[in-house]
Design brief:
Blueprint (H helix, E strand, L loop, with lengths): L2 E9 L9 H15 L5 E11 L1 H4 L3 H6 L3 E4 L10 H15 L6 E5 L6 H9 L3 E6 L7 H4 L4 E4 L6 H7 L21 H15 L7 E2 H11 L13 H10 L4 E2 L6 E3 L3 H17 L1
Parallel strand pairs: 1-2, 1-4, 2-3, 4-5, 5-6
Antiparallel strand pairs: 7-9, 8-9
Helix pairs in contact: 4-5, 8-9, 8-11
């Protein structure tokens, strides 16, 4: 069995607002399956969140449920804490000891000081991903020291987005109307959300197959039986998403499709998750 082992570090001092960490982990898992060849299993071998205690308490409950190791890093001189140093040393220790051995290191931060440890890990043939802001994704210091950059706004809690005015959803919901009949029941919403999460990990205009997509769906919804949903089968979910213009099947094919608008996938996923909050 081919397994990818991941170490993820959250510098809590760099997190503004509330984040859906479970959503972030799911997306990393799916993107790894897309990026690496012949992978049977993705394992988070290390999940660690470090920051000052007052910042940590906002996330402590969610992180504990996801089995993160939570470590307090008190502020010292000039209100600077040592989270960046603690995380960098820990990552280098993991590289040196190599037991367990990690294939991918993920850092959630906006602190350019991490570029030093990121470059070091890459010199030893480790994959390094960053979770940062849209502005971070354009900074040369990060683009030159990472293999992939995920945008943190994609994982913000939908209630936080709406309350603070960040990434509000467009009022144009004509396509989303095709999904509305399936939002009255929690199990149907779980199925839609899981499929949209899979498609959020995809690239625009690249061809994907329903078989691979179904397998990725099962990676994040292992206990959901589609026969108990209104869809009954995967084919019905694809038909609804095609009618909502989320996906487009190749001519004369019912198994190969593309995603032409990644922003629409994210927008519809947020609307589905928002409906979960209200129910």
């Amino acid at each position: 069995m081919n397994t990818i082992s991941i170490a993820i570090y959250l510098d809590v001092e760099n997190i503004q607002g509330m984040i859906n960490f479970e959503d972030l982990l799911d997306d990393i898992r799916l993107k790894v399956i897309n990026e690496f060849d012949d992978i049977d299993k993705v394992v988070f071998g290390l999940k660690k969140a470090i920051g000052e205690s007052n910042n940590l308490k906002r996330f402590r409950s969610d992180l504990s449920e996801l089995n993160f190791t939570i470590e307090d890093a008190p502020h010292i001189v000039n209100k600077k804490n040592r989270a960046d140093l603690i995380i960098s040393v820990d990552a280098l220790e993991k590289l040196h000891v190599g037991n367990p051995e990690f294939d991918l290191f993920v850092f959630l931060t906006s602190d350019s000081d991490y570029s030093i440890v990121m470059n070091t890990l890459r010199r030893f043939n480790k994959q390094v991903w960053l979770v940062g802001t849209e502005d971070d994704s354009q900074r040369t210091v990060f683009k030159s020291s990472t293999d992939q950059i995920l945008i943190i706004d994609d994982y913000r809690d939908v209630q936080y987005k709406n309350h603070n005015g960040h990434k509000k959803t467009s009022n144009n919901r004509s396509g989303f109307a095709k999904l509305k009949p399936f939002l009255s029941d929690r199990v149907n919403k779980r199925a839609l959300a899981a499929m949209l999460k899979v498609m959020r990990s995809y690239q625009e205009e690249k061809i994907y197959t329903t078989l691979d997509t179904n397998n990725r769906f099962r990676q994040i919804e292992r206990n959901l039986n589609l026969s108990q949903t209104k869809f009954k089968k995967f084919k019905a979910i694809y038909r609804v998403l095609e009618e909502a213009r989320v996906i487009e099947f190749e001519e004369n094919s019912s198994h190969r499709f593309t995603i032409n608008d990644k922003k629409k996938v994210i927008k519809y996923l947020n609307l589905v998750l928002q409906s979960n909050k209200k129910s």
